[in-house]
Structures are given as C-alpha cells and as structure tokens.
Amino acid sequence: MQSGKNTLYAAANSVDVLGLGCGPANLALAAAIEDGHQESALRAIFTERADSVEWQKNMLIPWSRSQTSFVKDLVTLRNPRSEFSFLNFLKATGKLVEFANLGTLFPYRIELSAYVSWVAERLGKVEISTRHECTALQPVIEGGRVTEFEASFSNGRRIRAADVVVGIGRKPNIPTAFKGLPDDRCAHSSKFLSLVDAWKGRRGLRVAVVGSGQSAAEILLSIPEELPESRVTVIMRSLGFRNSETSKFLDEFYFPEFVDVFYGLPEAGRRLVADEIRHTNYAGVTPVMLEALYSKIYLERLTNTAQHEISGSTEVVDASVADGNVHLQLRNMMTNEVSETQCDFVVLATGYETGQPALLADIGELLIKDATGQFVVNRNYRVETEPGVEASIYLQGYSEATHGITEGVLSIVSIRAQNVLQEIFERRAERLRRSSDKMRVAN
To answer: Quick one: which of 154, 240, 350, 432 has the most CB atoms within 10 Å?
Structure first.
C-alpha cells in the first residue's frame, strides 16, 4: 500500500534519500525536501511499517492535548510560509476559525495526529510507502568504497540510497519484572488503546498502571471512561505525581539555538544541564492534568465511589500470571515491606530506552563509536563513518546525550530537518566533486 499521491519511485531500487520511519521527525524532513524540490529535485522515499501514517495512535485519548505549541509544527520554525503548516491544515480542513476561537496554543492530540496524516497525504514529490518494515541495512560496495546502503523490507522490497535517515522511534522501556507477562496482560503505553479495546465489554476490571509521568496520569484518568466500573491503581517509585518543571526561562532550553550550546559542552557540562532540566519533560505532569486528576479523586472519596488509587514510593519486584490474575509483588520503598496485589492487566507508562537503533547492528563496523559504545553523531545528526564510507546514515531522535532534551519532543523537528538536509546537500556536493576529480584523472 502506498500512501500519498506520488508513486514515482515505487519501482525504483535506488533513490537519493531513504527515510526509515514516518514519525514527525522524518515527515518534517520530507516536507523540507518537498518545499525545496524545484531547486534540488531529490528523489526521496520515506517508509513506514504501519498501515497508515499517524502520530501516537495508541495514546489518542480524546481529551488529551499536545504539550507543544502548534507553532512548533513540522515546518513553521523553518519556513512559516510552507504549505505544510498546522495553520494551513486547519484552513484546508475548515477548522481554522473554530481553532482560533479556542484561544490555545496546544491542539488536541487527535487533531495533531490528523495533521501529521494530512502532511503525509499532501506530499506530491516525496513518496510515502506504508507497510514497509525495514529488517536490515547492508553496505553497497563499488570500487572498494561504500557508495550506498541497501535497506531490506519485510515485504521483499529492497531500496538503495546514498543518504539514509533513521527515524523509526525509540524502543519502549519494559522493566525486567514484566518481561515474562503475556501481551494480553501487559502492554506499554504505546499500545494502550489497543489493549483497552481487547478488554472492552468486561465489567469490574482491576487495572494497574506503572509510572509517574504525563502518560501515566492520562491513562489513570481515562481507564474508567474506557472501561466502565473498572478500578485503576497507579504504582510509582516516587512519592506522588509532581508538576512538570516549566517556565518561560526553562523553555529556552528547548530553543533550536541551545542545541549548539549543548553540543559544544564537555561531558560533565552536558550531564549537569541534563539533570537540571530533566523534569521539564520526564516524570512530570502538567498542572492542568494534575488539577483534573486530584479533583476527580477527591470527589470519589467524598462520594465513596473510588475508582482511582495512587500507590507511591512503591516498586514492582515481580509479576506473574496465575489463577486467571496478574500477581504483582510490591515493595514499599520507605519501609521495605513486601506485599502482593492482583489485577487483570497492567499498563506500563515507563518511557522509552535511550539507546541507538538496533537496526544499525549489521553495519556497526562501518560506524565510529565513542568510549561508551554509542555511535558518534556530528552536529547535523550524521553518524561519523570509517574511511572509505561515502554513504551517510543520519539519526533523528536518538542523540539526546549529545544534542539535548529536544531529541525526544516535537519542539525543533523542523529545524533539525533543516540541519539534516543541509548536511545531505553538503555530502552530495562532496561526492560529485570526488566523482568529477576521478573522471578528470581517468581522462
């Protein structure tokens, strides 16, 4: 299945740019390529393993909002005149006046997901191919040099490109205690709504949510709405939900310019900054959500109709299924007391792993690593390579350790796309110069 209007490269086995993944980061790059297509005419394919291009499909709780301003969409900070802006999406879909009347910078997630899908469908010069799951990357060697990388897909297709941009998303973090549970009894928040759908129609369900951030709070509040008469307990290592630490001063650490500052710091400086601003994005909940959740719990206590419970300073040390129930062994971190509770299923709002993609394992010997074993990524998100490698690998969303906290959020996806595209153009020019030099020598 091809989404998008253009299937010009559908039969091609070689293109200029291959994007793996169609999340916001790579779609921002696709839009940047499309915006400049008349000048550059890059042949580009972006692939997506799912059936369609959506954003956080399994966390589209109807009332949930984005935590990022719509001004920081896929294109506006790069080019406010781009046709792929969120405002143009609203205009094209007849919602601009109504959205303006809301008086907010923060769209509902369902609206932001619709925008992402709209951009994918509107692209005319860049191909978007769904149902394409990349299973391997291999080098293409010509004249003793790696000139391209070839991606193999589960549907049998193979595509080569001199510039490959990896934006397949980070791997969900599954704590060790839960790795033995079956999928119908335990799922990461990235599969939340699919798990809930499987349990719909059942009454009196007992649900455990593990985590203390925004996703945990939203799931805690939404489960009784999705599954009437259910009871849900959130289990967290912290004492309780905390405000996300934010202010206009702290927000400046999400400015595009701060990536240069962070990238230029020594390792100790990066750790200091990362520790200082961690709670602006991780393990914090927006004040609006905290107020709604606390009011809900207070009213339930007042009317003796409790459906929500918070178990703080608690960790799950073991999880198993027996007698039709999920058994959770809990440890109170203040008293060290161990207890057990039972539930029907568990949702893990435990975030994502910070490592770089396993997809690069087969070409790892061609990529330069640092002392910790992580790939070395330059300022424009290109992985440094060994001598003799002319083709390039770019990473979008995996370089928080070197590029800062914006790697995991939407704030600068348009500017990051511009950085990547600039590097692609520079590398292409270098390859052309090298090719021209070889031809002159040969003649």
So the answer is: 350
* E-state strands within 323-366: 325-332, 338-343, 345-348
Burial label for 345, CB within 10 Å (0-12, 13-18, 19+), is buried
- Model pLDDT, residue 108: 96
3-state secondary structure of 425: helix
Average pLDDT over residues 338-345: 97
Give Cβ neighbours of residue 439 (< 8 Å, ≥ 6 apart): none
- Please state the rounded mean pLDDT for residues 330-353: 96
| 68 vs 57: CA distance, rounded Å | 17
Return the number of other C-beta atoms located less than 10 Å from residue 5's C-beta: 13
Q: Alpha helices, DSSP H only, in 239-356?
A: 248-251, 256-263, 267-277, 287-303
Cα separation values, 12 from 9, 45, 159, 172, Å: 5, 10, 7, 33
Residue labelled with tokens 């692209």? 123
> Looking at per-residue confidence, does 9 or 306 come out higher?
306
Q: What is the pLDDT of residue 341?
A: 96
Q: Which residue has the tokens 């770089």?
A: 356
Q: How far apart are CA 400 and CA 397, in angstroms?
A: 7
SS3 210: strand
Give residue 220's pLDDT. 95
For the CA atoms of 355, 360, 363, 364, the dihedral, rounded to the nearest 10 degrees, stands at 0
- Reference 352, options 299, 398, 319; nearest CA is 398
Full-model pTM: 0.93
Write the pLDDT tens digit of every residue in 49-82: 999 999 999 999 999 999 999 999 999 999 999 9
The CA distances from residue 119 to 99, 281, 396, in Å, are 18, 26, 18
Sorted by where each begins, the domain ranges of the chain are: 2-171+353-442, 176-244+281-348, 248-280
Sequence-distant (6+) residues with CB within 8 A of 304 are: none
The reply to whether 2-171+353-442 and 176-244+281-348 are identical in fold is: yes
Residue 83 has pLDDT above 50, yes or no: yes
Q: What is the C-alpha to C-alpha distance for residues 91 and 87, in angstroms, rounded to an integer?
A: 6
| C-alpha to C-alpha distance for 272 and 380, rounded to whole angstroms | 23
- Mean pLDDT to the nearest integer, 209-225: 95
Could you give the CA distance from residue 174 to residue 278 in angstroms, rounded to a whole number? 20
CATH number of the domain located at residue range(s) 2-171+353-442 in this protein: 3.50.50.60
CATH number of 176-244+281-348: 3.50.50.60
- C-alpha dihedral over 178, 182, 185, 187, to 10 degrees? 60
